[in-house]
């Protein structure tokens, strides 16, 4: 699909199907120096994951469209915007206009999921749906033609620094099998508790987009941490 958000100046990393994408979450970054933190990572990352929280769907507040717009002007990386909000339909246009390349909404809050996903694509963004750890993947099996990405939460969303929930590993495998059986070019993203110790296992289970927050920004050298994480996930992909 064609992405209107700055494909003329940004590489469309999302469309590179041969590559496992590393998407650090800015939730764990130094927000006072957000653009600088991202740009220091350079080519060690592929996209930037932006966790939007409203204090209702999850017990935290984070970034509005002005922050996304400001960041969009300061980085050449695509912005992967995860809307953990109760009213995503009212916010899609504002985040697309701010510079989002992907817009991910939660299955748990959607009444008319296909309509929302089609609206995202009409705005020129990749359309994604997210599932909390306890939400069955069967709830989205009829949405596959409308999806560009599935995001599996491997922690209960709302805070950074949580530990990976082990049961989600089997869920990743089942979701990958569902995607492959469908024939649709859907990316599978995993977010929550990703570390250098488990990232390769997550890729082997079927993920091809990895979100990491504290495993990158919580380290003494975020760039070195991102480089190590990137090597681990791509080596795991190469051995599949």
Question: How would you summarize what this structure contains?
Answer:
This protein has a single domain (13-238), classed as Alpha-Beta Barrel (TIM Barrel), CATH 3.20.20.70. 32% of the residues lie in helices and 19% in strands. It has 8 helices and 8 strands.
Walk me through what this model shows.
The longest helix has 17 residues, at 222-238. Helix 2 packs parallel to helix 3 and helix 6 (199-205) runs parallel beside helix 8. The chain has helices spanning 34-41, 65-74, 92-98, 113-122, 168-182, 199-205, 214-217, 222-238, and strands at 21-24, 47-53, 78-84, 100-106, 126-131, 149-153, 187-191, 209-212. Helix content is 32%, strand content 19%. The chain is α/β, with parallel strands linked by helices and 240 residues long. It has 8 helices and 8 strands, in the order βαβαβαβαββαβαβαα. It has one domain: TIM Barrel (Alpha-Beta Barrel), CATH 3.20.20. The chain has an 8-stranded parallel beta sheet with strand order 1-8-7-6-5-4-3-2.
Topology:
Blueprint: E1 21-24, H1 34-41, E2 47-53, H2 65-74, E3 78-84, H3 92-98, E4 100-106, H4 113-122, E5 126-131, E6 149-153, H5 168-182, E7 187-191, H6 199-205, E8 209-212, H7 214-217, H8 222-238
Parallel strand pairs: 1-8, 2-3, 3-4, 4-5, 5-6, 6-7, 7-8
Helix pairs in contact: 2-3, 6-8
């Amino acid at each position: 699909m064609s992405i209107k958000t700055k494909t003329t100046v940004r590489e469309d990393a999302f469309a590179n199907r041969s590559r496992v994408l590393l998407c650090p979450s800015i939730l764990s970054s130094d927000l006072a120096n957000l653009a600088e933190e991202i740009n220091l990572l350079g080519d060690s990352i592929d996209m930037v994951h932006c966790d939007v929280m409203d204090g209702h769907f999850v017990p935290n507040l984070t970034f509005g469209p002005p922050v996304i717009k400001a960041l969009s002007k300061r980085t050449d990386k695509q912005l992967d915007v995860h809307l953990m909000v109760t009213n995503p339909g009212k916010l899609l246009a504002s985040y697309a206009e701010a510079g989002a390349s992907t817009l991910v909404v939660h299955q748990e809050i959607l009444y008319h999921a296909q309509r929302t996903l089609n609206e995202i694509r009409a705005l020129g963004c990749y359309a994604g749906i997210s599932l909390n750890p306890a939400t069955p993947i069967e709830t989205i099996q009829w949405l596959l033609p409308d999806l560009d990405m599935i995001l599996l939460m491997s922690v209960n969303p709302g805070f950074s620094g949580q530990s990976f929930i082990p049961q989600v590993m089997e869920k990743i495998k089942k979701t990958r099998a569902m995607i492959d059986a469908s024939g649709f070019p859907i990316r599978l993203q995993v977010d929550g508790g990703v570390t250098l110790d488990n990232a390769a296992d997550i890729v082997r289970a079927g993920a091809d987009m990895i979100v990491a927050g504290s495993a990158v920004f919580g380290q003494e050298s975020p760039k070195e941490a991102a480089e190590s994480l990137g090597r681990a996930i791509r080596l795991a992909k190469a051995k599949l």
